[in-house]
Amino acid sequence: MSGRAARALGCVAVLLLAAAGCSSPGGDDSGPAPSGPTSAHTPPSTSGSGAAAAAGRWQPAPGAAWQWQLSGTVDTSVDVPVYDIDGFENDAGVVTRLHHAGRRVICYVNAGAWESFRPDAARFPTALLGRGDGWDGERWLDIRALDRLRPLMASRFDMCRAKGFDAVEPDLVEGYANSTGFPLTAADQLAYNRMIAALAHARGLAVGLKNDLGQVPQLLGDFDFSVDEQCAQYDECGRLSPFIAAGKPVFHVEYELKPARFCPAVRKLGFSSMAKHLSLDAWREPC
What is the value of pTM for the model shown? Predict the structure, then answer.
């Protein structure tokens, strides 16, 4: 579920309950992308500037406050302009309610690991499943198999688009730096991450780079924002500064440090930061 947290804290499991009726529609990366949100209400702009906005998709601005909730019933009352929620477990109605409240909504999907509890789990070839990633029911994917994974990820992004999401947060996109069971290289990861970004953009969705700090310089132009876990704890936040310099936000959380320990530094960097429980429930303590 969470790349940095999985490495740092081992096999701490978050119970994710698959919601009925949330199976993703079939799809691939061919054909024109739909234009404009499909939800009943288009939220007011919280965009920055640049190529993404010019292309017609949402470009979040640096410093935008956010809520990240991947477990439990989504609390839609948090007064922030950006929400990041599970794409499978939330239907279009949740996205529409958030849009009516003026929020932009990011669709969390796992792009680097297979999850046994997702409705599309049977579509993933067994040969592409590697070692466990530290979370119950999850195994790393062989991201070298671009042709086999492309239609599966395209289908997931089609689901996000059909539900009216504005962006996607693809998780676990740094398998090359982990023990996956496959001989993944940095070049393999760059190719896969660029494919993921292109799939999102083809559907009019913004896309965030999750962690993968080692490839920020190469991938900055492909992604519209960053989602980071624990850069303060590991003294790595400076490596994300290129996103801010490019007019793209860094959505950042810490699980173990108290806000007084990390907030002064990340405020200076211009990050959108908060403390969260590892379970990523509704609780938050923003900077």
Answer: 0.85
